[in-house]
Design a protein that fits this description.
- By secondary structure, this protein is an alpha/beta fold.
- The chain contains 18 helices and 23 strands.
- Helix 12 (310-322) links the parallel strand 12 (292-300) and strand 13.
- The structure holds glutamine.
- The site of glutamine (GLN) has 11 residues, from helix 15 and strand 19.
Amino acid sequence: MKKNVKYIFVTGGVSSSLGKGIISASLAKLLQGRGFSVTIQKLDPYINIDPGTLNPYEHGECYVTDDGAETDLDLGHYERFSNTPTSQANNVTTGRIYQNVISKERKGEYLGTTVQVVPHITDEIKRSIQILGQTNNYDFVITEIGGTVGDIESFPFIESVRQMKWELGSNCAVVHLTLVPFLKAAGELKTKPTQHSVKTMLEQGVQPDIIVCRTEHHLNEGIKRKIAQFCNVSPTSVIESIDAETIYDVPLLMREEKLDIEVLSVTNTPIPEKLDLRNWERFVHRLKNPVGNVNIGLIGKYVELKDAYKSINEALVHGGTENEYKVNIVSIQSEKISAKNVAKKLSGLHGILVAPGFGGRGIDGKIEAIKYARENRIPFLGICLGMQCAAIEFSRNVLGLIGAHTTEIDIDSPYPVIDLMENQKSVTNLGGSMRLGLYDCHIEKDTLTYKEYQKQDVKERHRHRFEFNNDYKSRFAENGMRLSGINPRENLVEIIELENHPWFIGVQFHPEYKSTVKEPHPLFIGFVRAAINYKKTFVK
Ligand code: GLN
């Protein structure tokens, strides 16, 4: 029987960066804890088809799903919290909406009519929202609308919400996240920005059902009542979202504020008695009570950007928590590392992680850092470009192949140890020309990698163009670099690991995308464990 899918929208007002993604993911966690199946979707108002071609300065990390969609980093939060894979359908941009409508127009699907924002664009938006509920049998679809109400770009999205509310009645609810700032000079929390942002919603015909107020100080009952009165909601529907120590606190804080109960009430959903968050609580307890700490160096060219390596940061938190250790992430700009200063730059680290990336900036520093990790037996994890750099470093400094490089950076390298596959060489269109999404990897049994995964066949997510050049396979293997994981179908090297080193692994894929609170990634658990051992053994 067809279920009554409930659609919950999460909109934002007053300011960007209030944490709509975390609120959406926390709500999903609470609803899951009450036994509902939930998916979360992000609608982004920009015109790019996807964030794949955006640079991290613009948009933070690009998150990749199983089906190879290049998506907004909020999808990473959704997966880490809900432990449910997302897909292309979970991230839709204005660009994609228009692309779909225009291609239908060209096919003659609207023959005879003028194609307009209302109803054609809004119908396409509604279709992309409802398709998630209709095809997957979820109880709840939570749709986060990027940007802030009142932005020119978000109009068609808010208009679609208005229509869906009208069409679906109590099967649809709007949670509006705003800021309640504290004015130091006045010594007061101010509700006016919230009132204004709700008014902006009302001008567009949408009455929020629940107002979540991001704040640095607790909201007293008086303030809640005031917001309720000005914004036409009941006082219980004004939810405080106080700044938290970690994002992982937010589901527990939202439980205290009864966000789930409000959502269930306004959507006329019977409220299951039990809310089971035991696993989550256990995780947060461990996270906050570590028995020790380790320093992991994150070497990359975007380290000064908070969100550029979001999933790696979170996967390290998961790996640390699993080991009951706190991971101090020491961000090091790869451009600043040279042969001369590498020992100083990397001193005090118990593990070295070389980040993914595109292009040549900072690559020499990455290679120096890897040499240092290899020679000084410091645990090392290289991800994607980090793995490719490990192959280059090994070629140059162990195999003696002077000038070895990736053809991404040196097209004339005499030893192109990282290169394009033959069938990729003719591709010129950068958007969507990559190896993306889930691919099989077969792991050799007597390897460190196998020890960490405890299985031979895994699937991991990719996002790259270049590959390990198989011409160099035997030279690597004969000289102590195991090719421990292979994609069986295309015979591509996916994992390399150094023999005679306590823990040195490079992976062509991105393990960080698959690490969740419920299932921390085995490579991150193993890497942090190795860092802990290194600290115990070598640091007195
Ligand atoms: N630039 C490299 C490639 O395209 C690595 C990409 C990455 O690190 N994600 O193959």
